[in-house]
Amino acid sequence: MREKILPHSLYRNTNGWKSNMATVKNKSKTVFFCNECGFESPKWVGQCPACKAWNTMVEERISNPAAKSTKAALTKGDLEISRLKDISLEEENKTSTGMKELDRVLGGGVVSGSLTLVGGDPGIGKSTLLLQLCRLMGNKGKKILYISGEESLKQIKLRAERIGDFSDSVELMCETSLTVIEEVIKERKPEVVIIDSIQTMFLEEVTSAPGSVSQVRESTGVLMRIAKGFNVSVFIVGHVTKEGTVAGPRVLEHMVDTVLYFEGDRHASYRILRGVKNRFGSTNEIGVFEMRKEGLVEVANPSELMLEGRPLDASGCIVTCSMEGTRPILVEIQALVSRTNFGIPRRQAQGTDYNRLNLLMAVLEKRVGISLGDCDAYLNIAGGIKVTEPAIDLGIVLAVVSSFRNKAIAADTIAFGEVGLSGEVRSISQMEARVKEAAKLGFKTCIVPASGKAALKDIKDIRILYVQNVTDAISAAFDA
Q1: Which of the listed residues 108, 265, 352, 451 has the most CB atoms within 10 Å of its CB?
Q2: What is the DSSP letter of 366?
Q3: Closest by alpha carbon to 413, among 346, 347, 332?
Q4: E strands along 151-269, which residues?
Q5: Are 131 and 99 in contact (CB under 8 A)?
């Protein structure tokens, strides 16, 4: 009896049901990717289920990889299996970049064979930072290869002349084909490679256009193999979406060893480099830079920069402390509360979570009895820095009350602590480091949670007021 193959995954013959997948496993298939977040879907949808963006799904054709190479590896018997107790731990060899702020974010320096992703808004200073990295490491004798897919050699030269003198060990190349780039790296054998940017690179084996989800994913895979295989430190520049995340598939951030984000308003003078992933050091560390004509300059004391020019006798202002990794940073919270001219009050927050402002104002109404239902409220973290740590809750509460009462808080007073829904002021981490930073910058009074009394018993340089709840904190702030 002749078998008839049906267009389904199973078909029936004289021996029963058989799979029809073997006849199509080597054919290419069509999938849809989201341009914003990289979500993969077997069919087109109007709204991405992951990031909720509209009309971002694009169609791409993907070829199924053949299983021959895997079978060949299994038959050769060259698979290496090690026991856990036989693996020796050796400290990673980290090379200083010459910039202390960058070394802090990287966890001490550049690790050989690492793959680092640097993301940020256009014009924020990603290429400038990496070009300064090339200059400093090149002056130490490191062999650097800077590969640009967006700028010409003359454009890079113009930026380099503003930064300073470069050594002969820094080489430039304009190329977008990763096949050519891999051959150049094999021939030149650099120690550090800069790819600017990953969205311009392409592989000939992938049929989609450069910058697509498939190209970004496969190109990053090739660069990871180059970094690990040739023991080369590779830095990748990545563009970001309107939400602030790196454009391309989410797996891109999982593949690399370190993810750095450049933050800050490009119209302002300072920049913040934040580490959100680091396999060789702690995460959530930040480095602060100031953009000048000659490039990015390190800021040794970010707290002084954030508090520069703050008003001393204005209502609605108070200083609080946020921990960025292991570094305490003092920031000024500004609040403006006024009667609304419309039926629905307006609430707006800049630099922190808008929903957190609404929650804390509800706590003030319920637990303290301050009527804010008919008031507009505007909150700003001065300097443009973004702070989401719960430790600034107490500062937000006191700033709102100060603006509502139109009564200023003493300029040498600082407050920090997490506020709960019951109005209690809860303990926060690393209180001693925060208080010492405040004392170093000349603050005389510190309002902190009462649960931190044991950790701060040895502090003598600053007056500490311990509070149990929001009512106690308000009394302490205006009576201090």
Answers
A1: 352
A2: I
A3: 332
A4: 170-174, 192-196, 233-238, 258-263
A5: no
Residue with tokens 């800021």: 299
* 328-337 pLDDT tens trace: 999 999 999 9
**Continuous segment of H or E residues that includes residue 424:** none
In tens, the pLDDT along 111-136 reads 999 999 999 888 888 999 999 999 99
CATH T-level fold of 94-300: Rossmann fold (3.40.50)
Radius of gyration, CA atoms only, the chain: 28
Is 305-479 in the same CATH topology as 94-300?
Answer: no
Phi, psi dihedral angles at 135 (to 5 degrees): -65, -45
pLDDT tens column, 283-320:
878 899 988 888 899 998 888 888 888 888 899 999 99
Q: How far apart are the C-alpha atoms of 396 and 382, rounded to whole Å?
A: 12
CATH number, domain 305-479: 3.30.230.10
How many Cα atoms occupy the beta-carbon half-sphere of 62 within 13 Å? Answer: 17
Q: Cα separations (Å) of 31 from 53, 61, 305? A: 18, 6, 49
**The Cα angle at residue 89 between residues 85 and 92, in degrees rounded to 5:** 160
